[in-house]
Amino acid sequence: MTVNHELILALFILITTSLALGYGFGVKARRLPFTTEIGYSEKQWQFLRWWLKLALIAGVLLPMCLLALDWRQTSSWVFWGSYLLIVVVQLISERAFSKWLVPSVVVPIGFFYTAFRLWQLINGFTQLTFSYLTLMGFGIVVLFWVANLVMLMVMAIPTVFVSSKSISQS
User: Of all helices (H) and strands (E), which one includes residue 93?
Assistant: First the structure.
């Protein structure tokens, strides 16, 4: 069973949604050491606006182009279709849960979905047939998501994490 099997995708979405709900309710109840808001500085917000544009290009448009280049291959449809499904579910989850629960829920959602997406890409490397052009495009997609995971760990997570001492004092 591959990572893009329907059961794996459904279980991932179910587990990640459950974790996001737990995070949101836990932060709202002040039981978890995270802030409700994302406390980025102005420079971080400027970077993030640029980063989101890059994410649209490298994480959505480029994969759609790669699918179009290999549209005759069934494996390409299965792989990129599953990849794009996970992107859409992530965006819907982030939008809904950040409005319904707490804005900072986008950080753990982004972290889990990025890690899963990298697993999909590693698995896809063995499933797909590449020309030089599609291999370069695939490599750019992988590098972007690795960089996104690093950005989340270096910039986003420290911004929403507070010490457990401050939670116990309130």
Answer: helix 74-100
